[in-house]
Amino acid sequence: MQQELNYGLLGQRIKALRQRKGITQDYLAEMVSCNTSHISNIENNHTKASLNVLLAIANALNTSIDFLLSDQYENSSLALDNAILNLLQDCDDQKKEKILKIIEII
Fold it and tell me: Mind listing the pLDDT tens digit for each residue in 47-98?
């Protein structure tokens, strides 16, 4: 059975990651080589992102398509691993050491 992609969830994930990284829609559109309105329409589920645009967005946000779609997998183990790795990218070494200690305790 083929599962339909939920573009609303995808748009929300892109928007949340973009905002967390402090990137404006204008700047993301510039990095992706598209219009700001196209980024807005993707984030607000008014249009579907093509695979080429999705790849460009993932590269611009320094993430993977896997991470952007992670909340849509039936088996989310790999997606969770990638989500954790994505969040770790934004941490400095001191925070990473603290996180490592916490993981070792768990």
Answer: 999 999 999 999 999 988 888 988 777 766 776 777 788 788 888 999 989 9
The fold of the 7-105 domain, in CATH, is: 434 Repressor (Amino-terminal Domain) (1.10.260)
Distance in angstroms (rounded) separating the CA atoms of residues 95 and 12: 27
- The domain locations on the chain are 7-105
- Report the predicted TM-score, pTM, of the whole model to 2 decimal places: 0.73
Encoded amino acid at 92, one letter: D
Q: In 3-state terms, what secondary structure has residue 91?
A: coil
Contact between 82 and 70 under an 8 Å Cβ cutoff? The reply is yes
